[in-house]
């Protein structure tokens, strides 16, 4: 593992899961708090949260498989969410954590929901930030015209082949933080993107819509905090319907007006405050 500086508590490294190397950055000491990014992004997206929560937690920010410097497998099947879940379990084992607070944004939020469903005993608390709520996701994309319109951008991702135009300026256009938008655009330009798009090929419903998916088993048994920027450009507010049917443990919903898909960047202080409040309520902070 390579040092990130003079602070011995901050470093980066890799774990290996089934031949796939998964990169992570970590800072701080204390109980484990894992934060998983989405697309278009990487493990550096949670800078404001790392700075804040590393005061009391070991904050770990993995880089999704398909996103350098993590491995970029060519096999689309390697990007099934169950494999991403395996990556996260490997990281928890690396840090010898019996349980962790696990947060995720966008695709990272979908992966950690799968982790909470498959291995709830590993999850002390779940933080979901503008991510598709899985029990609602399949129905909305398949049957809701509004969400289908919002999901049109994924059709190009699903159809992407290596060598196609990356169109990174269009990919990052909704990142409201100008500096971060430029950072991510450069990351996209310098990285292969077939692995990133494979997450969509393997997991995101595409045309023809109208497929029925049984989500009756998707019931969350862990305490959950949902933070939602109400101007999300990718996900309909209808994702927040029927939460009581799917989240059976204490669950808090925080909606942030005038905020888009990246509330933890756009309103970092407010988001951090809400996370601290929730952790304190659960006696986890």
UniProtKB/TrEMBL annotation:
Residues 31-265 form the AB hydrolase-1 domain. Pfam families: Abhydrolase_1. SUPFAM superfamilies: alpha/beta-Hydrolases. One of its GO terms (biological process) is monocarboxylic acid biosynthetic process. InterPro entries: AB_hydrolase_1, AB_hydrolase_fold, AB_hydrolase_sf, Epox_hydrolase-like. GO terms for molecular function: catalytic activity. It comes from the Eukaryota. PANTHER family: MONOACYLGLYCEROL LIPASE. This is AB hydrolase-1 domain-containing protein. It comes from Penicillium arizonense.
